[in-house]
Design a protein that fits this description.
By secondary structure, the protein is an alpha/beta fold. It folds into 2 domains: about 130 residues, Oxidized Rhodanese, domain 1, CATH 3.40.250; about 220 residues, 3-Layer(aba) Sandwich (Rossmann fold). About 55% of the residues lie in helices and about 10% in strands. The strands form 3 sheets. Strands 1-5-4-2-3 form a 5-stranded parallel β-sheet. Strand 4, helix 5 and strand 5 form a beta-alpha-beta unit. Helix 11 packs across helix 15, helix 12 packs antiparallel against helix 14 and helix 14 crosses helix 15. It is globular and about 65 Å long.
Length: about 350
């Protein structure tokens, strides 16, 4: 008997049937992206992989294997000692590496020799990545979306979060900013939370779309083509903009400023960082205006600077973007919110559900 090979299309349908999904690649490869639920059991660490890879290129496969073989054997022995002591005979892992080659093959073989029914992913992560990219061209069109539009600070993201939190409602929410770990504007980076790689973002989006019921509405916020440095797939943008219902979230300007003060309160601890980010607006708004905003921030006039940024930068920019990208904007219903507190958002989420139900019945 030998290790079982499984095609990627079959593997993604059977992921929940394995007791573990094991990624044999190096920690850096794993951090960039990995299969849903995967554990990292590297057979070479990042430095070892670099050394062995360099030998392979410069001196050929034999030289690389002479060095890499003992490293792999020792590392796999460590995984077996640490991870397998409590595993029953029926434990069934799926193992993969970059191309489904020697790293995953060696680990899967060792597991098989110990006595476990290990399965190796044919084509490895590269095959999975190809599947994700292909699926993201077609998956968005399977779903019907209600797109929340609205000016900066109008509470779109909080409304989605409130909708997801409604007890027993089971609303399907696609929070692209949460997946991207970014609020989408030049100021949108989250402190201490670097954005994932593009590959990781794609996988998280793929996983979310696959998990939705195609017979039920998906609620999503209007987004530009990029969220920070990450790109939203064209197929999803097209579906959201040209084939979905759009609702305009409305919030009084003073409440919008209040929301921005809450969401961006961390800038008060580092106004210099805020000022550096504003440098990116000089081309659009001119140095004199940007310097005015920077001076206000240094002086601690946060409500005033956010109010001016809303009025003079974000509102005109967002209006042009909406007009350009949403051909049915004129037919969009208004969803008025009274405030940014949890009660107001929960009431808005209930109103949103009612509007969606009425639209579906129409």
């Amino acid at each position: 008997m030998t290790v079982t090979l499984l095609a990627v299309s079959d593997a993604v349908e059977q992921l929940d049937q394995f007791d573990a999904v094991i990624d044999a690649r190096s920690p850096a490869e794993f951090a960039e992206d990995h299969l849903p639920g995967a554990l990292n059991w590297p057979v070479l660490d990042d430095d070892e992989r670099r050394i062995v890879g360099t030998l392979y290129v410069q001196q050929g496969p034999l030289a690389a294997r002479k060095v890499g073989g003992p490293l792999v054997a020792r590392r796999i022995a460590g995984h077996i000692e640490r991870e397998l002591a409590d595993k029953p005979r029926e434990w069934r892992p799926l193992v993969y590496c970059w191309r489904g080659g020697q790293r995953s093959g060696t680990l899967a073989w060792f597991l098989w020799q110990v006595g476990f029914r290990s399965t190796q992913l044919a084509g490895g992560y590269r095959a999975f990545r190809g599947l994700v990219r292909k699926d993201l061209e077609t998956l968005p069109a399977r779903h019907h979306y209600t797109v929340l539009a609205g000016r900066t600070g109008s509470g779109k993201t909080r409304l989605l979060q409130a909708l997801a939190a409604l007890p027993a409602q089971g609303a399907q929410v696609l929070d692209l900013e949460a997946l991207a770990q970014h609020r989408g504007s030049i100021l949108g980076g989250l402190p201490g939370q670097p954005q994932p790689s593009q590959k990781r973002f794609d996988t998280l989006l793929w996983q979310a779309l696959r998990g939705f019921d195609a017979q039920r509405e998906v609620f999503v916020e209007s987004e530009s083509q990029r969220i920070g440095r990450l790109r939203v797939p064209d197929a999803l943008l097209l579906r959201m903009r040209e084939h979905s219902r759009c609702l305009m979230v409305e919030l009084p300007d003073d409440e919008r400023v209040r929301l921005l003060l809450q969401d961006y309160a961390f800038f008060a601890d580092d106004p210099a960082h805020f000022c550096r980010l504003l440098e990116g607006l000089i081309e659009l708004r001119g140095r004199v205006l940007v310097q005015r905003w920077q001076a206000m921030a240094v002086a601690g006039q946060w409500a005033a600077v956010f109010g001016e940024l809303m009025r003079d930068h974000y509102d005109p920019l967002y209006t042009r973007s909406l007009t350009r990208n949403f051909p049915h904007l004129a037919q969009a219903q208004s969803l008025p919110l009274q405030g940014v507190d949890a009660t107001s958002m929960a009431q808005g989420a209930q109103m949103l559900l009612g509007m969606a139900a009425a639209g579906a019945a129409a």
